[in-house]
Design goal:
single chain, 66 residues, 4 helices, 70% helix
Protein backbone atom coordinates (compact mmCIF):
# COMPACT_ATOMS: atom_id res chain seq x y z
CA UNK A 1 0.00 0.00 0.00
CA UNK A 2 1.29 3.43 -0.87
CA UNK A 3 1.66 5.97 1.93
CA UNK A 4 -0.76 8.29 0.12
CA UNK A 5 -3.40 5.54 0.18
CA UNK A 6 -2.77 4.97 3.88
CA UNK A 7 -3.16 8.70 4.59
CA UNK A 8 -6.45 8.84 2.67
CA UNK A 9 -7.79 5.84 4.62
CA UNK A 10 -6.74 7.38 7.94
CA UNK A 11 -8.45 10.66 7.07
CA UNK A 12 -11.65 9.01 5.82
CA UNK A 13 -11.89 6.75 8.87
CA UNK A 14 -11.25 9.76 11.14
CA UNK A 15 -8.63 7.91 13.15
CA UNK A 16 -5.01 8.66 13.98
CA UNK A 17 -1.78 6.78 13.50
CA UNK A 18 -1.78 6.24 17.25
CA UNK A 19 -5.24 4.63 17.06
CA UNK A 20 -3.94 2.19 14.46
CA UNK A 21 -0.77 1.42 16.42
CA UNK A 22 -2.62 0.84 19.69
CA UNK A 23 -5.13 -1.42 17.96
CA UNK A 24 -2.31 -3.45 16.41
CA UNK A 25 -0.90 -4.25 19.85
CA UNK A 26 -4.34 -4.88 21.36
CA UNK A 27 -4.84 -1.74 23.43
CA UNK A 28 -8.51 -0.75 23.40
CA UNK A 29 -9.24 2.65 24.85
CA UNK A 30 -7.29 4.74 27.28
CA UNK A 31 -8.70 6.24 30.44
CA UNK A 32 -7.85 9.68 31.80
CA UNK A 33 -5.85 7.85 34.46
CA UNK A 34 -3.77 6.14 31.75
CA UNK A 35 -2.97 9.51 30.20
CA UNK A 36 -2.10 11.00 33.60
CA UNK A 37 0.18 8.06 34.42
CA UNK A 38 1.98 8.39 31.10
CA UNK A 39 2.28 12.17 31.51
CA UNK A 40 3.98 11.76 34.89
CA UNK A 41 6.94 10.14 33.12
CA UNK A 42 7.49 13.22 30.93
CA UNK A 43 9.72 16.20 31.76
CA UNK A 44 7.76 19.20 33.13
CA UNK A 45 8.02 21.31 29.96
CA UNK A 46 6.79 18.45 27.77
CA UNK A 47 3.99 17.71 30.24
CA UNK A 48 2.90 21.34 30.01
CA UNK A 49 2.90 21.12 26.21
CA UNK A 50 0.82 17.93 26.35
CA UNK A 51 -1.79 19.54 28.61
CA UNK A 52 -1.90 22.60 26.35
CA UNK A 53 -2.45 20.39 23.31
CA UNK A 54 -5.22 18.43 25.03
CA UNK A 55 -6.95 21.66 26.04
CA UNK A 56 -6.66 23.06 22.49
CA UNK A 57 -8.28 19.92 21.08
CA UNK A 58 -11.00 20.00 23.74
CA UNK A 59 -11.82 23.66 23.08
CA UNK A 60 -11.83 23.07 19.33
CA UNK A 61 -14.28 20.20 19.76
CA UNK A 62 -16.55 21.63 22.49
CA UNK A 63 -16.03 25.38 22.16
CA UNK A 64 -14.50 27.87 24.58
CA UNK A 65 -15.39 27.90 28.24
CA UNK A 66 -18.28 30.13 29.19
Amino acid sequence: MKMSHYRILIERLKVTDLDISLDMIGVHGATPWDVAAAARTLPPDIRTTLVTLIMMIYRDKYGPEE
